Amino acid sequence: MARVLVIDDHTEIRELLRLTLQAAGYDVVVAPNGREGLEMHREWPAELVITDIFMPEQEGLETIQELRRQSPRPKIIAMSGGGTLGTLEYLPAAREFGADHAIGKPFDCEAMVAAVREMLGAAG
């Protein structure tokens, strides 16, 4: 069972993703910000990290860069609901910082599961 770490400051999104991905057969843990997410990844290495871009304490772009320096290196899906420049500006930036895939918020749960399967392979 593939391990997935979800990092998002919104409890509702963390829980929605946790429940959705667990139902799809993944082992899921959640963290409320990038700092705690990085600590969790060191203790519980995930094959895939799904992270929000805009969070308190440590933003997602910084978290993505830190994850790229760690071993083992997880696949990364970045999420964004916008910001001052809007979603279209930040999702490409997430890829430049090292994300493998980017999804805008709000997202469709089926599309998120499909993206996770694509990142991890169907066997995930």
Q: What is the secondary structure topology, with strand pairs?
A:
Blueprint: E1 3-7, H1 11-23, E2 27-31, H2 34-43, E3 48-52, H3 60-69, E4 75-80, H4 87-97, E5 101-104, H5 109-120
Parallel strand pairs: 1-2, 1-3, 3-4, 4-5
Helix pairs in contact: 2-3
Description:
Helix 2 packs parallel to helix 3 (60-69). It contains five helices and five strands. The model has no long low-confidence stretch (mean pLDDT 88). The longest helix is centred in the N-terminal third of the chain and has 13 residues, at 11-23. The radius of gyration is 13 Å and the shape is globular. 45% of the residues lie in helices and 20% in strands. The protein has a single domain (6-119), classed as Rossmann fold (3-Layer(aba) Sandwich). It is of the alpha/beta class and 124 residues long. Helix 3 links the parallel strand 3 and strand 4. A five-stranded parallel β-sheet has the order 2-1-3-4-5, with helices on both faces. It has helices at 11-23, 34-43, 60-69, 87-97, 109-120; strands at 3-7, 27-31, 48-52, 75-80, 101-104.
Which sequence of SSEs, written as H and E, runs from N to C? EHEHEHEHEH
Which structural class should the secondary elements be placed in? alpha/beta
Task: Quote the average pLDDT.
Answer: 88
Helical coverage, percent range: 40-55%
User: In one word, what is the shape?
Assistant: globular
CATH C-level label = Alpha Beta
Largest sheet: 5 strands, parallel
Ends apart, CA distance between termini: 6 Å
Number of strands: 5
Low-pLDDT runs of 5+ residues are: none
The domain count comes to: 1
The strand order across the widest sheet is 2-1-3-4-5
Count of helical regions: 5
CATH architecture classification: 3-Layer(aba) Sandwich
What would you give as the CATH superfamily? Response regulator
